[in-house]
Amino acid sequence: MRGHSYTCPLCKKSVEDMSEYFALLDSAIRMQPMPPAYAATTSNIYCQDCGKVGNVAYHFVGLKCQHCQSYNTRELQRVDANIMASLWQGYNSHQST
């Protein structure tokens, strides 16, 4: 797809049938699991195809919309549950002193 845009330059929705490409991404993600350090990491995403937001497991290959199964997504925020748990634990211990 080098040199070829598969999205509309105005609305950013996919303008072609991307099912074969998305199947390749599905396969790549299955074949390359994330390391344990990223097991609890999720991403808040915006899907440029269906316009919905969601929270999905983080993977560097791609972030798949759970509503329409598209990888035409934008990461809004990455959340590491381990870090959040540590911060929450620190907050709670600070509140109890």
Q: Give the structural class.
A: alpha+beta
Biggest sheet strand order reads: 2-1-3
Number of helices in the DSSP assignment: 2
- What quaternary form is this? single chain
Please tag this protein with its features.
3 strands, 2 helices, 21% strand, three-stranded antiparallel beta sheet, alpha+beta
Q: Overview of this structure, please?
A:
There is one protein chain. This protein is 29% helix and 21% strand. The model has no long low-confidence stretch (mean pLDDT 88). It has 2 helices and 3 strands; from the N terminus they run H-E-E-E-H. The chain has a 3-stranded antiparallel sheet with strand order 2-1-3. It has 97 residues and is an alpha+beta fold. The protein has helices spanning 19-31, 81-95, and strands at residues 41-47, 53-57, 73-80. Strand 1 (41-47) and strand 2 form a beta hairpin.
Secondary structure layout plus pairing:
Blueprint lengths: L18 H13 L9 E7 L5 E5 L15 E8 H15 L2
Antiparallel strand pairs: 1-2, 1-3
Concise summary:
The chain has 97 residues and is an alpha+beta fold.
